[in-house]
Design brief:
Helix content is 24%, strand content 42%. By secondary structure, the protein is an alpha+beta fold. The protein has two domains: 33 residues, no CATH class; 153 residues, Mog1/PsbP, alpha/beta/alpha sandwich (Protein Transport Mog1p, Chain A, 3-Layer(aba) Sandwich), CATH 3.40.1000. The protein has a seven-stranded antiparallel sheet with strand order 3-4-5-9-8-7-6, covered by helices on one side. It has a three-stranded antiparallel sheet with strand order 1-2-10. The N and C termini lie far apart (62 Å). 25% of the residues are buried.
């Protein structure tokens, strides 16, 4: 019995093979690219935090919580060389208080208060259509020196604050884990 392959049959087999290889590659990437998705309907937001499959490496991440008022969730490298925090300021109790260049002076005290560091820069930014501000500076946290970036957005009667810190690095947004998490912040109602 002779088997005859037409050009169309060969293309179909190759296309199916390419599809299977692509699907397998995506599946392997999804399994190896670990992250901790955090979402809150109460606070109407979500963020993708870096996370790790095991704690064998000091550069792996661990999701952390906080009891400090105004902090929702965070992540830290196991060796404490980098942190990410998501927090908020409740505006329901603060009539006529809005996110602007004047209010930044009060809001930044949480990050750049006396003895904690100083702000180097302030710029307007946009994330997923939300207008906000990015503060950069230096911070002292648990006795170590960190480069700090804080992004703030006003929505839903809150000022959301996403902060990234990296030890001995003036530009924490160059770290792909920090940059990826900070840019993943979203409002659920949009």
């Amino acid at each position: 019995m002779a088997v005859v392959f037409t050009l169309q049959a060969i293309e179909a087999v190759l296309t199916m093979h390419l599809f299977n290889v692509t699907f397998l590659a995506l599946l392997l990437f999804a399994v190896s690219a670990s992250a901790a998705y955090w979402e809150s309907e109460d606070f109407d937001c979500s963020i993708q935090l870096p996370d790790s499959n095991s704690s064998n490496s000091e550069t792996n991440w661990s999701t952390i919580g906080s009891t400090e008022e105004g902090t929702l969730v965070g992540a830290a490298r196991i060796n404490r060389s980098a942190f990410i925090f998501l927090g908020y300021v409740d505006l329901s109790k603060r009539k006529n208080f809005h996110l602007n260049e004047k209010s930044i002076e009060e809001l930044e005290k949480r990050y750049f208060g006396e003895g904690q560091g100083f702000r180097r820069g302030l710029e307007r930014i946009s994330l997923h259509g939300m207008q906000g501000y990015r503060l950069t500076g230096d911070s002292v946290y648990h006795g170590a020196h960190y480069g700090l970036v804080v992004e703030m957005f006003e929505a839903n009667n809150r000022i959301y604050q996403i902060a990234g810190m990296k030890e001995d690095d003036l530009h924490p947004l160059k770290d792909p884990d920090i940059r990826g998490s900070m840019s993943s912040f979203k409002l659920l109602s949009r």
